[in-house]
Each structure stands twice: as C-alpha cells, then as structure tokens.
Amino acid sequence: MKLLQDRIRQDGEALSSHVLKVDSFLNHQVDSALTMAIGQAFAAEFGAERVTKVLTIEASGIHFALATAVALGVPFIYAKKKKAITLTEDLYSVPVHSFTRGETFNVSVSKRYLSATDRVLIVDDFLATGDALLGLREIVTQSGAHLVGLGAVVEKSFQEGRSKLEATGVRIHSLARIKSMSPDHIEFIEETAALAASN
C-alpha cells in the first residue's frame, strides 16, 4: 500500500534495526483518514471470503479492525488482555507474549461472540514475532470458527513472524512489508517482488 509506505517513510522513526516508532499517525495519535483507507485495503483483499467477524487484540489493533469491519459490514471483536469483572461468561483464552511491552498477557474472548459458524479475519497493527497473531489464531481454533486470513498493517519481514504463521497454512496479507531498517533508512519489500517470489 503505497500511501502507507510513503507515510512511514515521512513520519515513521526507526529507533533501531528492530524498533519502528509510528505513534504520530498509527498507534498513539491516529490519522483517521489513513486508518479508514487501511480498512478499505483489507476489505478489498478479503472481501470475497464471506467474513462474518473481524478479530484483533487490544489496544493498537482496534481502530484497524474497526475500519476493516466497517468496510466489510460486519462486527469486530477485540481480545481483552485483562479479564473485566463484566466478563462473567465462558471464555476462549490463550497466553500471548508482547514483543513491544516485554510482558505475557492472558487474552480472552467471550464465547458469546465467536462460534463455529463464523468466518474470521484477524487484523493487527504489526507482524513481527507473530506471537499475538498466533494467539488470536488459537482463539479462532478453540471456537471452531474458520480463519480466512491474517491482515497486518506493518510487517517486519526480517523477523520470524511470517514464517511461523505460514507454517500453519494461513493466508497472510501485509500492507507495508519492511525488508530492513535503520535510523536513517527504511527499505520495503515491494508487492510485485513479493508476488514473484511466492510464484
């Protein structure tokens, strides 16, 4: 997605070869028009899959899942990292390690909102180590629902997340795939090159 890549080059900040700061437009202050365009891009990619629910994990994936769900005309669900006192019903639950925070959370989704009849699209802000997306995939598996694919806004392709997820057979679509980065340069894997490599 050229619009997203251009914005990352303009306003993103590579703090190191592994840490990308995008909090001025993606995950602290949010560019709402860009977010809605991201939702439209995911809807265009997965629109033929008859998605019934979009699933993400709190908090940084919520607005992207919402934008995608609006574009698809379906509800979205976010897995909660802490059990609220209002969550009294049965839950799907799985431990997930956060690369950014260096913590492990027990994330959960109410069984009332996800079932074997659903066709689920998972959307998140980053694909890096893949742990959060693997955790969400496990929640879908627990529910018996069909996982149609995974959408990542930004993928750090130099980390192991994609290979771990591809090993499960799931379809992955990332809008901006970073090949490498340093404080003075961010290099993307262009979509045409990525498609050629997969053929």
Please describe the structure with a list of short key phrases separated by commas or semicolons:
single chain; 199 residues; alpha/beta; Rossmann fold; 6-stranded mixed β-sheet; 6 helices; 10 strands; globular; disordered C terminus; transmembrane helix; Xanthine_PRibTrfase; membrane; transmembrane
How is the topology of this model organized?
Layout (H helix, E strand, L loop, with lengths): L1 H10 L1 E2 L5 E2 L10 H15 L6 E5 L4 H11 L3 E4 L11 E8 L4 E8 L8 E9 L3 H13 L2 E11 L4 H6 L5 E11 L2 E4 L2 H8 L1
Parallel strand pairs: 3-4, 3-7, 7-8, 8-9
Antiparallel strand pairs: 1-2, 5-6, 9-10
Catalytic activity: XMP + diphosphate = xanthine + 5-phospho-alpha-D-ribose 1-diphosphate
Protein name: Xanthine phosphoribosyltransferase
EC number: 2.4.2.22
The CATH architecture category equals: 3-Layer(aba) Sandwich
Total of helices: 6
Gross geometry: globular
Write down the domain tally.
Answer: 1
Question: H/E series, N to C?
Answer: HEEHEHEEEEHEHEEH
**What is the percent of helical residues?**
25-40%
How are the strands ordered across the major sheet?
Answer: 4-3-7-8-9-10
Q: How much of the residues is beta strand, in percent?
A: 25-35%
Describe the structure.
Its EC number is 2.4.2.22. Pathway: Purine metabolism; XMP biosynthesis via salvage pathway; XMP from xanthine: step 1/1. With 199 residues, this protein is an alpha/beta fold. It has one domain (38-198): 3-Layer(aba) Sandwich (Rossmann fold), CATH 3.40.50.2020. The chain has six helices and ten strands. Strands 4-3-7-8-9-10 form a six-stranded mixed β-sheet, with helices on both faces. A two-stranded antiparallel sheet has the order 1-2. α4 links the parallel β7 (119-127) and β8 (146-156). It starts with a helix and ends with a helix. Residues 192-199 have low confidence and may be disordered.
